[in-house]
Amino acid sequence: MEKIKLFLNRLKNNWKMKVVALVLALFLWNSVIQGTDPLISRTTDPIPITLIGAEQLSSKGLAIYNESEEYLQSVKVTVWMKRSEAKLFDQSKIQVTLDLSRINTVGEQIVKVNAYYSEGTVEKVTPESFTLQVDQKKSKIVSIEYNVTGELPDGYYQGEISVDPKSVQITGPSSIVDLVEKAIFTVDLTDKVASMSLPKEIFLVDADGNIINSDTLVTSVDSAMFEMKISPRKEIKIIGESLVKGTDKLPAGYEIESIEVYPSKVEVTGTTEALEGLTSLPSEIKDVAGESEDVHTTIKLLAPKGVEFLTSDTVSVIIRIREIMEKATYENKTVELRNIPSGMTVQDFEEIRTVEMTVPYNTISTLTSSHVKLYIDLAGLSEGEHELKIQCEVPEEFRAENIVIENDTAIVNLVSNN
């Protein structure tokens, strides 16, 4: 007990000096500790920014006009940490954010960049803020259209085309949304020989067709499903004779002169198997039995299984019917002289000719040599020799054609009677 009292009495003596000594000892201890594990600063490589508050901004009817690379570009962060912990430094644990929730109006807005590191103290962020352009948010729907480049190879047909969806909704700052005229994609048909069904990335364009590359716009879809039917095609000639029957049952003395088809060719498409070896098409048939005049009609063509028409499936047909013409020859026909001028005489004229002609089948049996007259018309001629053309006269009811007179000129010598 006495020893304790003695110790306490000693502490009371010069206690101020003893307190000072204690403080100095603590300071010295801290200096030693700090000297062995001091604080150091570390600056990170670029760290991407995380946006927060975007939904709140959108709910206010606002949108950022700046392209994202202008403000989501990476920032650098400087932190303080103990030397002993620097070996374990992991910059991925640093959170860098840009809070958009406090933006309430359009125009320029300065937004501070925030950084947090749980294992050290953030000294500074570079850059420390961004100036954002804020616009009213707007949405609209535009059509999705397509452009075609190239051509299918010869012998192939571009069939039905479908695009799904046919429109896209775009949302973003109104000043950019207003520029968008439509969405487009391009399809190249070069060397395509089979039907296509594939997604195509869409691009937004303005009224002049310029692509609008802006990541401030959000689209309801990024692509459209494009489908095009591609199939072989073939040209088929239409043979008139295959469209008509009864040509051997025309009235006596009549025959088919020609069968004209308009168009004379049609185009079809179908499977390769269906078109292979296809050279003609079935059709309705026109019966001309008993007809004696030209027939004008429309005939429907029929498509075999697996074949479709690319052109009309009907053709116009003209069936020309004529009377059969037979050749008639009349020999030793005397050439008559008509309209000998008054006061004149024909000297030494005696001409015999052979004449040929074609006559309808139904009249040739009644046409005799007496119906056929050869003559020369002397009306208005003056005295002297004249080489004149011999003419042929056949009554109209016989409808003679292609009249040919052998040696159809003759010399006539007119002599005055005075």
Polypeptide structure, described:
- The chain is mainly beta and 418 residues long.
- Helices cover 13% and strands 48% of the residues.
- It contains seven helices and 30 strands.
- Strands 2, 3, 5, 6, 8, 10, 11, 13 and 14 form a nine-stranded mixed beta sheet that branches. Strands 9, 12, 15, 18 and 21 form a five-stranded antiparallel beta sheet that branches. It has a five-stranded mixed beta sheet with strand order 28-26-23-25-29, with no helix packed on it.
- Strand 5 and strand 6 (107-116) form a beta hairpin.
- The protein starts with a helix and ends with a strand.
Question: What is the secondary structure topology, with strand pairs?
Answer:
Blueprint: H1 2-12, H2 15-36, E1 39-43, E2 50-52, H3 54-59, E3 62-64, H4 68-71, E4 76-82, H5 83-86, E5 95-99, E6 107-116, E7 121-126, E8 129-149, E9 156-164, E10 167-173, H6 174-177, E11 182-188, E12 196-201, E13 203-205, E14 218-219, E15 223-237, E16 244-245, E17 254-262, E18 265-270, H7 272-275, E19 286-287, E20 295-300, E21 307-309, E22 314-323, E23 325-338, E24 344-346, E25 352-360, E26 373-377, E27 384-389, E28 391-393, E29 401-405, E30 409-416
Parallel strand pairs: 2-5, 8-11, 16-19, 23-26
Antiparallel strand pairs: 1-4, 3-8, 4-7, 5-6, 6-8, 8-10, 9-15, 10-14, 11-13, 12-15, 15-18, 17-22, 18-21, 20-22, 23-25, 24-30, 25-29, 26-28, 27-30
